[in-house]
Amino acid sequence: RGDFQDTLNRSWPRLMSIFGRPGSRKNVRYRELGLKKRDNDEVRQTFAKEVKSKTEPLGLSLPEWVPEWQKIPEEAAIPG
Predict the structure, then answer these.
(1) SS3 readout for 6-21
(2) What pTM, to 2 d.p., does this model score?
(3) Looking at 20-24, 31-35, 49-53, which range is the least confident one?
(4) For residues 8 and 72, what is the distance between their CA atoms, to the nearest angstrom?
(5) Could you tell me the CA-to-CA distances from 28 to 13, 16, 22, 64, 80 in Å, in that order?
Protein backbone atom coordinates (compact mmCIF):
# COMPACT_ATOMS: atom_id res chain seq x y z
CA ARG A 1 0.00 0.00 0.00
CA GLY A 2 2.86 2.38 0.83
CA ASP A 3 4.48 2.07 -2.59
CA PHE A 4 1.16 2.62 -4.31
CA GLN A 5 0.45 5.73 -2.21
CA ASP A 6 3.92 7.08 -3.07
CA THR A 7 3.26 6.51 -6.77
CA LEU A 8 -0.13 8.16 -6.49
CA ASN A 9 1.42 11.16 -4.72
CA ARG A 10 3.98 11.59 -7.50
CA SER A 11 1.67 10.99 -10.46
CA TRP A 12 -1.51 12.78 -9.33
CA PRO A 13 -0.38 16.32 -10.27
CA ARG A 14 0.58 15.11 -13.74
CA LEU A 15 -2.70 13.26 -14.16
CA MET A 16 -4.75 16.28 -13.14
CA SER A 17 -2.84 18.46 -15.63
CA ILE A 18 -3.60 16.14 -18.57
CA PHE A 19 -7.02 17.68 -19.08
CA GLY A 20 -5.72 21.16 -19.90
CA ARG A 21 -6.91 24.51 -18.67
CA PRO A 22 -10.57 25.22 -18.07
CA GLY A 23 -12.14 27.29 -20.82
CA SER A 24 -9.32 26.81 -23.33
CA ARG A 25 -10.01 28.34 -26.74
CA LYS A 26 -9.92 25.00 -28.53
CA ASN A 27 -12.15 23.33 -25.94
CA VAL A 28 -14.71 26.11 -26.32
CA ARG A 29 -14.59 25.72 -30.10
CA TYR A 30 -14.88 21.92 -29.92
CA ARG A 31 -17.97 22.30 -27.74
CA GLU A 32 -19.47 24.81 -30.19
CA LEU A 33 -18.95 22.26 -32.97
CA GLY A 34 -20.40 19.44 -30.88
CA LEU A 35 -17.10 17.53 -30.79
CA LYS A 36 -16.96 17.78 -27.01
CA LYS A 37 -19.75 18.12 -24.51
CA ARG A 38 -17.91 19.23 -21.37
CA ASP A 39 -15.25 21.73 -20.35
CA ASN A 40 -11.79 20.45 -19.43
CA ASP A 41 -12.32 21.22 -15.76
CA GLU A 42 -15.65 19.41 -15.65
CA VAL A 43 -13.98 16.29 -17.09
CA ARG A 44 -11.11 16.65 -14.59
CA GLN A 45 -13.51 16.83 -11.62
CA THR A 46 -15.46 13.79 -12.84
CA PHE A 47 -12.20 11.85 -13.20
CA ALA A 48 -11.03 12.89 -9.70
CA LYS A 49 -14.34 11.79 -8.14
CA GLU A 50 -14.16 8.40 -9.83
CA VAL A 51 -10.55 7.80 -8.79
CA LYS A 52 -11.34 8.89 -5.23
CA SER A 53 -14.22 6.41 -5.06
CA LYS A 54 -11.81 3.62 -6.04
CA THR A 55 -8.84 4.59 -3.85
CA GLU A 56 -10.54 5.45 -0.54
CA PRO A 57 -11.87 1.92 0.09
CA LEU A 58 -8.27 0.72 -0.32
CA GLY A 59 -7.06 3.09 2.39
CA LEU A 60 -5.37 5.40 -0.11
CA SER A 61 -5.82 9.13 -0.35
CA LEU A 62 -5.46 11.55 -3.21
CA PRO A 63 -2.98 14.34 -2.62
CA GLU A 64 -4.26 17.88 -2.80
CA TRP A 65 -3.85 19.32 -6.27
CA VAL A 66 -3.32 23.05 -6.55
CA PRO A 67 -3.44 24.07 -10.19
CA GLU A 68 -0.69 26.34 -11.45
CA TRP A 69 -2.45 27.47 -14.59
CA GLN A 70 0.56 29.39 -15.90
CA LYS A 71 2.49 26.09 -16.01
CA ILE A 72 -0.30 24.07 -17.60
CA PRO A 73 -0.49 24.32 -21.39
CA GLU A 74 -3.80 25.41 -22.82
CA GLU A 75 -4.11 22.10 -24.61
CA ALA A 76 -4.08 18.74 -22.86
CA ALA A 77 -0.59 17.40 -22.29
CA ILE A 78 1.39 15.38 -19.81
CA PRO A 79 4.01 17.76 -18.41
CA GLY A 80 7.47 16.47 -17.59
Answers:
(1) HHHHHHHHHHHHCCCC
(2) 0.78
(3) 20-24
(4) 19
(5) 24, 19, 9, 27, 26
